[in-house]
Structures
1.
Amino acid sequence: MNFAFTDEQIELRDGVRAYLEGTHGAEVLRRLDTEGGRDPVIWRGLVEMGLTALIVPEAQGGLGLGLIEAALVAVELGRADVSEPVADSALVAPRLIADEAQLAAIAAGELKVALAHPVNPWVADADQAGLVLGGSATGERLESADPLRRLFAVARAEADARMLDHAALIAAAQLVGAGERMLTLATDYAKDREQFGQAIGGFQAIKHHLASVAVALEFARPALWRAAYALENGHERAGVHVSHAKLAATDAAVQAAETAIQVHGAMGYTYEVDLHYWMKRAWALAGAWGDRAFHLRRLDDAVIGGAMAIGPDQSFETGMTHG
Amino acid sequence: MDLTYTPEQQAFRAEVRAWMEAHVPKEPLLTLEGRAGFDAHVEWERTLAGGNWGMVTWPEAYGGRGLDLIRWLIFEEEYYRAGAPLRANQNGIFLLGPTVMEFGTDEQKARFLTPMAKGEIMWAQAWSEPNAGSDMAAIRSRAVRDGDDYVISGQKTWSSRAAFADWCFGLFRTDPESRRHKGLSFILVPLDAPGVTIRPIRQLHGETGFAEIFFDEVRVPAANRIAGEGEGWNVAMATAGFERGLMLRSPARFQAAAKRLVDLYRAHQRDAAPSAREAVIKAWAEAEAYALNTYKVASTVMAGGKIGAEASLNKIFWSELDRALHRTAMSLLGAAAELKEVGGRVNQWLEGYIFSLSGPIYAGSNEIQRNIIAERLLGLPRLGAG
């Protein structure tokens, strides 16, 4: 039993974070906003970083890493508001595909995969996808509140429970990253903005709002890691753990967004301050891959419905009989 | 990351479970906050000590088993799973104990830790004063050096368990010229020493779970001081860290309460408000999140890491989840919630709800915790620096 990351995992996270901080700042988001949202140069950079190869087996040219690593990277994608379809294509799809040639093409960054599922009324990035898993999209573009999302109407979608769990996990991770970024943006603004002769971050009203966001994020994260671990290891309760993670991440990110706009004051209500990119991504991911109601129902069935043993000895698979 | 138990950890769990099943009282004890209940809880401490379960993480030399923090969490899980009583000596084993372990001399460890683990000496806290609550650095009670002794005068308040305990630990001003955080020392005082007067305070539930302590020229040996003279603030902050951080409120307690809440919901489902259903699920999810985070913190500490201001995140989370959990239970009980007994048994939910209201206040109010998070974790300007 050890609830800590390995040195390699921390290195991976820090490497991806540093790369995205260097290449994918807010000025890139503003440029993409006016240029249609996608940029092959950014995609190529992510491929060269190894992100498309991350969880593809080594035999197909991948790095053969697991879902803890995938979730660690997805947090960073959320923190940087990366909009290229790397999350769906490279952190979800490889676990749903058996075809070796397709896996190799994903790892090489040559194949982009989109995901269709009846829980979503859209298919993201269907236009550039060489493969749509779970169904198909029409060519009709749907406008998202998030200017960097590219959504298309669904033609056909089948319910694939594995897809849902994997995609909900990665969405939860991105929500945590977006929430962390919004907390940072609001904190930085509060340190800088002066009123009544001092930085507004010195006022307890501001401090307490931001501290509450820090609490919510702190306790969403461990739910995410347990879900990633359980899904990776095929635990019976993995779906319930994913729902817990998605719910906690959604609530924390939405709280971060609403707090961040409040701390920014009227500036937060403008298109000029970058905060809105993360806020709109949080709204989008909050509803994607099972909204609050969906995941709450799954927890309800498990906890109140009695489908799962609960109690102090039930956080992890113990292998003991339940009394 | 490896979220599975080893066979040795499983075997340990089975050992704890078997012992608890054989020894935990079948009926809940009277409340820890009253005299009779406290005595019953002390009796339980001695039963625990008889099984060598007093404080499993302490070295064997001091009455422990020398186990790591993962085993401590397993112990706690089985403890609350079995419905075992609250720990009468929580001030001692969870707060003073780790403090003495970190800052005490070998002589002090032998003198204080062993009787603590054996349930022989019960401890009270003596931090707050009438004019030093959230602002603890405003402490005025003084300890004047006189040869090998200190002579203590002053007043402490909100001293948990002082009405029933044997000793107290607290902060006293040893340098009369000092101000604020400087010049304070961490001193242990027997509550039966001449000059000590205890005035119990009735708490919200009517019992005397805490008290005022008056010190009128109370003489204690300087050997009762933990760490150096004037270093008390840093020692106290470490103690507060233990309180807020890892040990005082083990997650198993909330997981057990959440499980009982689910049972309560099932029994009252037909009459429950629709919003109660989500509140029940949320209580379970938050208790789980707290448990997971505690495993994370334990893993970090075992790898040589320290608990810093993150302890404040923890304290806010468990205290607010506990209050929400019990509020939900009260709403499920409806008109019966006010009754002190339900079905011939003490209304544990009412007692629990009342106790949960103290959580966001003690161990540093949650407003103070939010200041700490904002200033030390987020780097916002310090209070009063503007």
2.
Amino acid sequence: MVNPILLIAIPLALAFAIPLFGLISKKIIRYIPVAAFLFNLIISISLIPKVLQQSIVVKISGFQPPFGINLFVGPVGILFSTLIALTGFLVSIYALDYIEKKGSTEKYHILFLILLTGATGVALTGDIFNLFVFFEILCISSYALVAYLGNKAGIESSIKYLIQGSIGSSLLLLGIGLIYGQFGTLNMADIANQINSSSSPALFVPMVLMVTGLGVEAAIFPLNAWLPDAHSSAPSSISAILSGIAIEVGLYAVIRILLTLFNAADFMMFVLFLGLLTLLIGEMSAFKQNNLKRMLAYSSIGQIGLILFAISLKTHFGISAGLFQVVSHTLGKALLFLAAGYMIYKTGSMQISSLNGIGKKMPITSLLFTIGSLSIIGLPPFVGFASKLMVIRASLASGDMLFTILVGIILLGTVIEGTYFFRVVQSIYFKESNESVSRSETPVVGLIPMFIFALLIIFIGIYPDCISKILNAASSEFLNRLDYVRSILG
Amino acid sequence: MEFLADYIYYIGAFGLIIIGLLIVLVKHNLIKVIIGLSILDTGINLFLISVGYLKNGTAPIFSRTDLEPGNMVDPVPQALVLTAIVIGVAILALALSLAVKLYKHYGTLDLRKIKEQRW
């Protein structure tokens, strides 16, 4: 068996080796992220059958938990690390051509590798302070990548993101300090073992601090002011990663803290309403945007709200539906940002009106963009349909009258989503084109990753059972805290 | 007075945290906001250290037989603070370099005048 620690170690080591490779040849640097994430993808996929039988606990340097730092590779961890490796691999192929057009590439590739290392680390770690460190790795590299282009909008968004993000991580650290002061341990399983319910104020305060801190990165409603700026001013390949990976990882951390660490069943109703609020605010703000990338960014906020809603149902069905929505959002939104990247590059403007008639100029890219939008809206046969259907079935299956009414709000969100995405699709295909744009397609290197995303969207959409096994295992990992504790502490 | 003497480090730490948050919230100059973030960071580091602090405690060296194990300070928070300081420095450096770039673009650090991105 391959040690899962390599999933973190290899990209991290390669990231810092990039300047050394750069001494040999500037040409090979851009292939290093591709190689790193291909490796991660192969290892993650090969670990899936093993993890489904039994979760792997990696004890770093042989210390028995609760001493030392341990990695916990359960179904959730492996689901996220596969998703991160897949997206990272495809986006780094895309960047081979895309980012080359934007000048210097060495720093970009280093930061890109570090960002996804941090994301993998957050998903796999079993130690709460280690989670903070990986989270900071993820955040700091994404602050820098948002400012990568060095233009006015990028710098301004990056500084906004940095101020909000670092206040968030300070709150997270404060919460960790309070937890350590009470329990004298940082191991998540050990803390979970000592907490039965989070009703006492001594536990409630650190929980709220940690959820607020992580919520900034997860873009939960009142904390998401940075997101539209940052996602729209970053280079498109980074927007795809930020939208498809970074906020999902933040959400994973929130859910892990709430469900596994604090067993906060009473608190989930509040989170559910936050999710609905996030959904509505995100969709309504997306509706009034004229800027394509801002519209996609607001749509991510809406999708995060939907995921949060599904997971806060805290039924087995609801959590697997939420995780399915994570998969579907990652695939769909990454495809949309990648396609939008070349469309914007070609027309030279982010305005939706400038896309008029581009369906004739870039037929394949436009088709792929349309597939992505239809999947995010939730039309069959794409994956978005399967996942949204599952969210709605989950909330109906919980049997509560309240949830039946709330389904109406979700469907309303979907209608708004449909309206603004169809508006873009309409201007792509049915509006008079701007003659000054010449007819030329995205380079093949850029098309291949988009094709793979589109194929996955259609394949999982037609045959959702292919991932249902890992989703079910993942949702039982979130619900059965005792199994989590027992598998680590023995 | 007894209370003050026992909890002086916690009071100091939370004082710094609140001062830092207040500076970030009310100041309009970017450099001052970054200083606020730094003060917030310091407050949290002080808080973490006080979690493991013992009055008249000794360093946790187990090979020294003349030191009482019960009288040693907890080494874990110190390791945490070391990490947190490094992260804080990274954020501070990045924030200051962004501030330089921002000044080049806008010619000002007044956050009220930097409003190109909005909802």
